[in-house]
Amino acid sequence: MDGNNSAPPAAADVAAQAGEGPAPVQADIRSHAVHHDQSTAPDRDCSPNRRITPRPTFLENLASTRDSQFMLDRRNDSEIDRYFHGPRDLDKHSKWPIFLRMHGSVLPKMILPLSFVAAWSTLITLLSRYVVNLGINNILLTVTGFVVGLALSFRSSTAYERWADGRKYWSLLIQTSRNLARTIWVNTAEREGELGKEDLLGKLTAMNLILAFAVALKHKLRFEPDIAYEDLAGLVGYLDTFAKDAHDRERLQPPRKTLRKAVGEYLGVSFAESNPRKLVKRSKKPLGHLPLEILNHLSAYVDRCIANETLTISLHQAQAINGMAALNEVLTGTERVLDTPLPTAYSISIAQIAWIYVLVLPFQLYNALTWVTIPGSIVAAYIILGLATIGSEIENPFGQDVNDLPLDTYCRQIALELDIITAMPPPNVNDFITRDDNLVLYPLSTVGYPDWKDRSVEEIRAALRTKVLANTPSALGSEESTMVGSMSSKQSV
Transmembrane residues, as ranges (predicted)? Predict the structure, then answer.
């Protein structure tokens, strides 16, 4: 990582480079680094708690707020770019009718195919009009149309199933993050004195690891293998991971796309599309598995809490362990969705069926429609090829298309909810229950907890029975709300 901390080559390594034999595998890189650190700087503090390497340079420029943390790709984009590129921002609302909206539409990717269909149908119409009639019996429309309908239905249903599975797994991730964070923050005790301070900082570290798991999973699903992204580096930059060792600044600053390539990708030209796994394939070092490594650190934290008896109740221990198992289930499930697309044979066959139908369509329409064959073919092509394009776009729900899942929004939601959980100390039951404004029998009575505490159990139960009777429609005389119907009973309570 850093040239100032790289150890000189061992003698065996030099011999191996000279052709005298293979270099042995380094048994313990960490101990070797410590030994080298001690030998090169004897006056330096070499205690076990001292950092072996300096603070990584990628921690210098990080996001300052939650909003900027998860707006990396849109921070400097214009409103036009944000409108035509995704994923969609769920906070935005459009008042345009649905059939007039362009944000989320596949029409931009249909421009070239529809232009080709327009030219093709025009050519067939002109040849049939002025040279030789190429029209055929439209009975073929019925036969082939049924097959095309089945193919597109299968394509759309399988693609949507993958999209829905991706959303379900991220919903499970949000749910598990909430449960695990609550277990750690509320059910894990804090000891007295300095140990309590360590417990508090440990809790905050665990919270960051929960968020880091979601962010790391997002980057992994998008084939972004580095660790220095602004929304991730500050959360896991201190961990010893393979991704940290393989950090490469060039992956964070890819070369700018040419105008031809950018336009080609926008129009859906397959020859202009890049391999989404190119950054992973070009890595010169092992990338490891960052979400799984984060789970290992989180599991180690839970084990320490159990060992130092800050997490003693077996039910809470099981909740924490089951929470990490659920996170692993999310990891495995999203990888299954990502790495198991529709078999290539199906994709090729469906695409061929759709295009054959569209190309033969002008021949079948000319005898009945003549010049209307041209717009009729274009409309039919938009319907058929549009459904096929939608299926292709949502097949991978974790990408950057407009209709893909807004993973940045989900990560920001987890981050904000974790901030809400940690904003206050774990609630003290005796503190909030005994407050004067705790209206325990609201809306029957506006008397607070201290007044009801002075009454007998029989009076409390009688009031609860009165609460039910006061809320019945016969007692109210109409379908009024509980607030209105209970006003008459407050005076007697």
Answer: 110-128, 134-154, 345-363, 369-390
Q: What confidence tens digit (pLDDT) does each residue in 308-343 have?
A: 999 999 999 999 999 999 999 999 999 999 998 888
Within 8 A by CB and 6+ apart from 76, the residues are none
Angle of helix 139-187 versus helix 373-394 axis, rounded to 10: 30
- The interaxial angle of helices 290-307 and 194-221, nearest 10 deg, is 160
Residue 12 in any domain: the answer is: yes
Whether residue 185 sits in one domain with residue 280: yes
* Angle value at C-alpha 441, between 436 and 447, nearest 5 degrees: 40
Residue 178 confidence class, pLDDT cut points 50, 70, 90: very high
- The structure tokens listed for 423 are 């904003």
Angstrom distances, CA of residue 132 to CA of 123, 358, 366: 12, 21, 12
In angstroms, rounded to a whole number, what is the distance separating the alpha carbons of residues 194 and 98?
59
DSSP for 382-401 reads: HHHHHHHHHHHHHTSTTSSS
How high is the pLDDT of residue 116? 93
* Residue 198, in any domain of the structure: yes
pTM (two decimals): 0.78
347 by Cβ neighbours in 10 Å (0-12 / 13-18 / 19+) ranks as middle
Q: Are residue 298 and residue 342 in the same domain, yes or no? A: yes
Decide if 317 is inside a domain: yes
Q: What pLDDT, on the 0 to 100 scale, is given for residue 268?
A: 64
Cβ(167)–Cβ(397) below 8 Å: yes
- Reported as a pLDDT band with limits 50, 70 and 90, residue 9 is very low
| Phi, psi of 279, rounded to the nearest 5 degrees | -70, -35
User: Both 22 and 128 in a single domain?
Assistant: no
**Which of 364, 395, 422 is the C-terminal boundary of a domain?**
422
Give the per-residue pLDDT at 245. Answer: 83
Cα 353 from Cα 152, distance rounded (Å): 9
The CA distance from 105 to 98, in Å, is 10
Q: Are residues 375 and 329 in the same domain?
A: yes
The verdict on residue 427 lying in a domain is no
Residue 80 confidence class, pLDDT cut points 50, 70, 90? low
473 prior amide bond cis, ω within 30: no
Alpha-helix runs per DSSP H in 340-456: 344-369, 373-394, 407-422, 429-433, 449-453
Q: Are residues 172 and 204 in the same domain?
A: yes
Rounded Cα distance between 216 and 335, Å, is 13
Owning domain of residue 449: 433-490
